[in-house]
Amino acid sequence: MAFHSAASALPVTWRKASASGGNGDCVELAGHAGTVLVRDSKDPGGPAHSYQSDAAGAFLAAVAAGRLVPVA
Fold first, then answer.
1. Largest Cα span, the chain
2. Cα separation of 59 and 55, whole Å?
């Protein structure tokens, strides 16, 4: 994982889930140089984290399949 201090300065197009509400409580994703970037939609100029594409894909597949256990 890498950290980028200013997500809005990255040359990418940010996307969020079509099912997200209009209240800004979601994350946005973007592809960049073989990684997946993640930022908080409430703070578009704030930081972003980047993850290797295969790791991000495995995480998203687990979420979609309901294989993650909620943390109490």
1. 37
2. 6
Instruction: Report the Cα 38 to chain-centroid distance in Å.
Output: 3
Phi and psi, residue 48, nearest 5° = -135, 150
Instruction: Tell me whether strands 35-40 and 48-52 are parallel, antiparallel or unpaired.
Output: antiparallel
Question: What is the value of pTM for the model shown?
Answer: 0.77
Q: How many CB atoms lie within 10 A of CB 14?
A: 17
Per-residue pLDDT, 12: 92
Alpha-helical (H) ranges within the chain are 53-65
CB-based contacts of 16, cutoff 8 Å, min separation 6: 26, 27, 28, 29, 41
Residues in the chain: 72
Give pLDDT tens digits for 34-50. Answer: 899 999 888 888 899 99
